[in-house]
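Page 42, continued from yesterday. The earlier attempt failed because a stray header line got pasted into the input along with the sequence. Redoing it now with the clean sequence only.
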Amino acid sequence: MNFPLDIVMVPLQGFILLFTIYYFVIGFCGLWRKHEDKILTPSKTFALIVAAHNEHAVIAQLIDNLTELKYPRELYDIFVIADNCSDDTAEIARAHGAIVHERFSDVGKGKGFAMEWMFDRLFKMERQYDAIAVFDADNLVHPNFLLEMNNRLLKGDKVIQGYLDAKNPYDTWVAGTFAIAFWVIDHVWHLAKTNIGLSSVLGGTGMVITTDVLKKNGWGATCLTEDMEFTMKSLCDGIKTTWAHDAIVWDEKPLTFKASWNQRKRWAQGQFDVAHRFIPRMLKEGIRRRDIRILDGCFHLIQPHFMMISTMFVILSYVQMGLGQQFFTNIYYFLPAELFSVITLGQYLLPVIILLKIKVKPKAWLYLLLYPVFIYSWIPIIFLGFIHRNEHEWSHTQHTRAIGFNEFVGENK
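This time it went through. Structure tokens are written below.
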């Protein structure tokens, strides 16, 4: 072996190989759907929660959309948390029929804290609900969303994530590449894991949690990625997140690269935070319970670490070649060029399959040419997220795409 770099490169390459196989096996399992006999009789009651901070531009369209869902109106109520708003979000939401709770706090800022505050209020109300559905103010929701969630609840699921689609996938190349990433993740990650019995991951919106789970275990998820925190907290208690593929929510993707960068940096910070706090506990619980779903959750949490290690591997390989060393010798040679060719092929092949499957507009295929910019821009974002992982300041993403559901459907026919 060529020292000193080989002693570092061999385990790094082994780690990358392991993860590559893992991702490809998981991804392949998302290229089909299992047949499901659905229960279509409405019976479960829902509290629909919308977390809103200065969302006057989009809140009315969502409330109107929610009031027209194909589900008995007496079985659900719409609540808006006007969280530290300095605009007329609360007034607009009330005018469109929502039950508004205004929250003003100089401490505990962010969606996770606002939700915990609202859950506590809900549990003290005279009317109690079977489950709570959470949305963001910029969303539009499929008319059958609650029917689909009712089906999953009646089959015993406790924590459920709906399909995350894009409201504005053709507005800019940034929104377009962001949408492609979500479409791919919806299929080769969420659907794939559900197909083989693993746990999905909550996505912050379009998610449903049973009231009994929240009352028993509490919310307690207040970091920058509160959805992931609650997912892993539930997994530790043996509760997996189920994927409801036909319960669709459309959200507004960032229009500019700067907005996309800031949002993804916050996600990276939050994931590192959750990983460092939960992985030791999850490893212990996964082994104790002999539950592969919990151990798989650990794999999910170390994705950012995988990207950092892969980047370091590439840099060190160039350093090694620059020093005139053979890349690897004898049994330590894992065909690195071929390995990275397979990784690169997968990054392009899977999006192509998914775009063909969901029948996107021609403009999305043009955005696919810029998809590598989105993917590889994650590298500096991940490193920044690691550096700032202990910072918890919430950054608000401004939403401006005000469009009603019927108009949206007309645009996307």
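Notes: Residues 84 and 104 are 5 Å apart (CA to CA).
Reminder to self: strip header lines before submitting.
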